[in-house]
Design goal:
The chain is an alpha/beta fold. The protein contains 24 helices and 16 strands. Strands 11-12-13-14-16-15 form a six-stranded mixed sheet. A five-stranded parallel sheet has the order 2-1-3-4-6, with helices on both faces. It has a three-stranded antiparallel sheet with strand order 8-9-10. A hairpin with a 4-residue loop joins strand 11 and strand 12. It is globular and about 110 Å long. This is Cell division cycle 45. One of its GO terms (biological process) is DNA replication initiation.
Length: 600
């Protein structure tokens, strides 16, 4: 059920308890976790933190700890599945779920005892009515009217029997009609996957309601929202709306800080609203490197071609920036050039067809020396979390979580260097794919596969990194192709996951359209294609909704797949973040054939 009063129905309940905290491996979840940790530290709440990257880890961790805890908090995992069915908890277990994944599973919505949803009700949830999807079982009373009829005339018995048969027939027909309506209602509700309000923003609202919101918490909420924007999880309208909400909090905190004696302390965090350039990491890089490795500019200049490189030179000349200046670190550029740089670049960008060169965002100053844009922190934290240099996922999670604290700026700067490497590798891989025509049409979708041995292929084995590459590749392909039909197609991309196990990661990215929705049909299509071909597929990522326990490892351990979920041909594609599946390499061909058939 939805929690209406977060303070009374959630925080005051767990405040005096030992709680287990499950946190998904995404930047927004980490930011929400940091806010909740700060609140727990303030109120001396005992908790255990367990990072989970997928359904397998969540189920394993729950089985390991379920005897020690009664209260469980799930951040960015669990809302879009029937938790009680998957985890099979004891009756006294209570789950508080703060998750951006939509749609919310209907069983979770109408569970009055064990599931408590920490989800903003003003999100466009469109949950079906209870009577449309649940129905009390009615007892059949086929013979209830026959008793005591011994003395009745045969004609009366026959008439009564005919009436009972007619009533039962009507009841069965009504039942079939209700079940058909239920299937239609659930299909309409569950067919697309999308994201709601940032989990970090939800947790910050809780802190604000309790008058315990600190500047660090506000910054984490900003980073959580920016993560959703960077990864295309929310619409531009939703992003701008939430930026406005956070901007009011920034103004309130600024006024509060002005009244405090340590307003200019070396240790303070000063947050500012910015209308800044849409260039990745440019303040920690050279302007030239940022222009070349930002998807927005690289795609529109077509920097994988000689003509694109020439257009970049023309752009810099139009801005009036010497090549020597733009190729050195941004911090070392002449102050006179940096004064009006944003306005100059925006003016020239408009001439070159880039109308969205500046975006609404926020920055933070830690003391007098360290300044970061919210997107800088997102890229750095994401790179730390998916870096192959850390041995285990838990180590990567810990490094990423620590980098969000102002006392660990060395880790944040290390994350920035990893992010630069990731962005360079992304653009180099895109150039290679486009120049060698690796993006091919499979009919209803585009397909691109990275081969084992491709430079930097290890950097794209994780879902977020591969999804980022896929989105950027699709944007670049749309800018490069002259085929109007191909511009409207989605993209399926595959990358090697484990050479030893012979597995690949596949990501589905809906097409580049002008639609403002951020919804996706690929999760359903992947599930259906894997089931229909008995492909050894692992649906282990939290983005796949309506997951059934028997589907999680469909074919991965040679278990029988569950009955198929009807996916209708000619599906309406709407843009969204991604759908992810892990697959045995030798099953890829039949999986793709099934996907083509499903979506044709």
């Amino acid at each position: 059920m939805f929690v209406s009063d977060f303070r009374k129905e959630f925080y005051e309940v767990v405040q005096s308890q030992r709680v287990l905290l499950f946190v998904a491996s995404d930047v927004d979840a980490l930011c929400a976790c940091k806010i909740l940790q700060a609140l727990f530290q303030c109120d001396h709440v005992q908790y255990t933190l367990v990072p989970v990257s997928g359904w397998q880890e969540l189920e394993t961790a729950f089985l390991e700890h379920k005897e020690q805890f009664r209260y469980f908090i799930l951040i960015n995992c669990g809302a879009n599945v029937d938790l009680l069915d998957i985890l099979q908890p004891d009756e006294e277990a209570v789950f508080f779920v703060c998750d951006t994944h939509r749609p919310v599973n209907v069983v979770n919505v109408y569970s009055d005892t064990q599931i408590r949803l920490l989800i903003k009700q003003d999100d466009d949830l469109e949950v079906p009515a209870y009577e449309d999807i649940f129905r009390d079982e009615e007892e059949d009373e086929e013979h209830s009217g026959n008793e005591g009829d011994e003395g009745s005339e045969p004609s009366e018995k026959r008439t009564r029997l005919e009436e009972e048969i007619a009533a039962q027939t009507l009841k069965r027909r009504q039942r079939r009609e209700w079940e058909a309506r239920r299937r239609d209602v659930l299909f309409d509700y569950e067919q697309y996957e999308y994201h709601g309000t940032s989990a970090a923003m939800v947790m910050f609202d809780l802190a604000w309601l309790m008058s315990k919101d600190l500047s660090d918490m506000l910054w984490w909420a900003i980073v959580g929202l920016t993560d959703q924007w960077v990864q295309d999880k929310i619409t531009q309208v939703k992003y701008v709306t939430d930026v406005g909400v956070l901007q009011r909090h920034v103004s309130r905190h600024s006024h509060r800080r002005e009244d405090e004696a340590h307003a200019l302390s070396v240790d303070c965090a000063r947050i500012s609203f910015e209308y800044d350039l849409r260039l990745a990491l440019y303040q920690h890089w050279s302007l030239h490197d940022s222009l070349c490795n930002t998807c927005y500019t690289a795609a529109r200049f077509k920097l994988w071609s000689l003509h694109g490189q020439k257009r970049l030179q023309e752009f810099l000349a139009d801005v009036g920036l010497p090549l020597k200046q733009v190729k050195q670190k941004f911090q070392s550029m002449d102050v006179s050039l940096k004064e009006n740089l944003r306005e100059m670049i925006e003016e020239s960008a408009n001439k070159f067809g880039m109308k969205d060169m500046r975006v609404q965002t926020f920055s933070v100053h830690f003391g007098f020396k360290h300044k970061f844009l919210a997107s800088d922190v997102v890229f750095a934290t994401m790179s730390l979390m998916e870096s192959p240099e850390h041995g285990s996922g838990t180590d990567s999670f810990t490094q990423a979580l620590d980098s969000l604290s102002r006392g660990n700026l060395d880790k944040l700067y290390h994350g920035l260097e990893l992010a630069k490497r990731q962005l360079r590798a992304t653009q180099q891989t895109i150039a290679s794919c486009l120049c060698t025509n690796l993006v091919v049409s499979q009919g209803p979708f585009l397909y691109c596969a990275l081969m084992e041995g491709t430079p930097d292929v290890a950097l794209f084995s994780k879902p977020a990194s591969l999804s980022l590459l896929s989105r950027h590749l699709l944007k670049s392909f749309v800018c490069s192709t002259k085929n109007r039909r191909c511009k409207l197609l989605p993209l399926v991309m595959a990358a090697p996951l484990s050479a030893e196990q012979g597995t690949v990661t596949m990501v589905g990215i809906p097409p580049e359209t002008d639609s403002s929705d951020r919804k996706n049909f690929f999760g359903r299509a992947f599930e259906k294609a894997a089931e229909g071909t008995n492909s050894r597929a692992l649906h282990n990522h939290f983005d796949l909704s309506d997951l059934r326990p028997e589907v999680v490892l469909a074919g991965w351990q040679d278990t029988p797949a569950s009955p198929g979920w009807g996916l209708q041909g000619g599906a309406a594609w709407l843009p969204h973040a991604q759908a992810v599946i892990e697959l045995k390499a030798e099953d890829r061909s039949k999986f793709l054939d099934a996907l083509v058939t499903l979506l044709s």
